[in-house]
Give the backbone structure.
Amino acid sequence: MSIFDHGAALVPDVVTEAEEERILLRISQAPWLTDLSRRVQHYGFRYDYRAPGVGRHDPAAPFPRWATVIGDRLAPLFDGRRPEQCIVNEYRHGQGIGMHADHASFGDVVVSLSLGDAWTMNFRPRSRRPYVRGGLASDEVVLLPRRSALVLRGLARSAWMHGIDPTASAGRTLTRTSATFRTLAR
């Protein structure tokens, strides 16, 4: 069964090309954290990568204007709640992120906006070799178009993992920037 049969959805053109350009400019002007293999920005709450099982989130910088505008636009996807956390990740060629599911301390819906370039993302049920970092032949691979939002809810959020295989981006010249919006679990 496809990840889309389990509650995932792709919403095209969440932002216009002009908005995408402005957002990417604002993101590029903000400070980056560089303690991971990719550059990251946290807003609202900072995720603690050193203690991911704890579910504690330290306060981070408030949402910049662009994130507030997009968060308000995405609120219907969160059943009317405003996102409380946004993490911006920058992926350059040869970079990825290991297979994971967003921590249970976040709400039931996760929405990730893709900016800059379309990249593929791998999906795998948690029950199937969860700790293999790169892609497996059995993974479902989905292209995330520019300016689209990936929405994970239901089993797509709780029973599936997602990640970006760094070998799939080899040779790419453009950068993908994602802005992932989440609420905190209540």
User: Anything to note?
Assistant: Residues 98 and 133 are 5 Å apart (CA to CA).
